[in-house]
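Amino acids appear as letters; backbone shape is given numerically. Here is one record.
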Amino acid sequence: MERNTLREKKGIAIIIALLMLLVLTLIGISSITTTNFETNLSGTERLKTDAFYAAEAGIQVGISQIPDTNPIQKTELKEDSYYWGGTTGDKENPRGLQSLGSHPMDGFDSSWAFKRFQVNATGESFGAIKEMEVQVSYGPFRAGTEYD
């Protein structure tokens, strides 16, 4: 008595096809999830970079106005991108540059002095915020002069 093995394996092809389809679906879902995560990550990084450059613009404005210690006013660079003098809490009331007094510098004798200033600026871009602080030496000036 010979058995027909093909008749006993009826339907196995559909089960294998469904399993393969399930595996491919899981791979597709995993790929979409990874792509969405990477897209969000790169978008956040772009906003942080924009905020950094906005803060850098504020620092450059502050350095260009030394020896004046006036506040760096809140300035719009583009839609929802700003810089201002000070920290995040100083957004509506920018802080001025700080004069840290005079100091000696290597290579100059005691008859010369340099003035030191601190510039704080904050940049914001679509909610991402970066703060920067820079100290700048300005001079040389004759020691004992009343320049501020």
Notes: Residues 32 and 86 are 42 Å apart (CA to CA). The two ends are 113 Å apart (CA to CA).
